[in-house]
Design brief:
Layout (H helix, E strand, L loop, with lengths): L3 H13 L5 E5 L7 H16 L4 E5 L3 H7 L2 E6 L2 E7 H11 L7 E2 L6 E3 L3 E10 L2 E3 L2 E2 L5 E8 L5 E12 L4 E6 H4 L3 E4 L2 E7 L9 E11 L2 E15 L27
Amino acid sequence: YYSSGMYVRLAFSVAAHMEPDILLVDEVLAVGDAEFQKKCLGKMDEVTKTAGRTILFVSHNMAAIQSLCQKTILLENGKIKKIGDTKEVVAHYLKSNPLTSSGVNLKERKDRIGGKKIKIVSFHVEENGKKVDEIYTGGIYTFCFGYEAMDGKPIKNLGCSSGIERDSGEYLVLNWTRLTKQTFSVAPPKGIIKCKINQKFPLIMGLYNINAGLWINDNREDFIKNLIMIEVKRGDFYNNGDLDTLSPISLEQDWQLEKT
């Protein structure tokens, strides 16, 4: 038996080499490792620029869309919301799906794995105890995940995980109660799990996807992959006016010289 990811890889490989006039590629970058995704992007680039054929590329990967596509269609609930140049449509998408101070309502999201026992129902970011709608490199933030038990009863051994990916799909950060051994032995039926990042936010300016999962007894009971896309804005990480963008992650550092 093949996994769903293997079926997607096989289907893409066959379709890409059949030389169709129009190639429909639907979320192929959502599976496979970085090397497979790189090969997919390379093949699609070859098909359009060398062979001169058309690709209809369906994806949440903003970097890939901007790299491959000249024209873009934004769909919302199965309806066309905007058509135009890729740069304009992506900008419109980000403005219409922002991180807001009121938070993100996730209760009705259908693109989740699980959700029968417990659901992630909201997400927001706090700075100094207050909700914020902007994230800057170098800030001190707390990621907050609202949850709800479907049976209305207290939850034993509740855990939460959250990852941060580049919009290209490259995994950068994993925060998880299991790593810090902070699983909640008894949790109320409804609540908010807060993950404080105990350091300056290290990611530089750019677009990032947030995912999140809920765990009971180390079994994942709910997961949303593309919970929200956030835009990290340029910040003064080192407090010296030099807005470093030379690496994807900034680290606090202190340099010294010793005589030998």
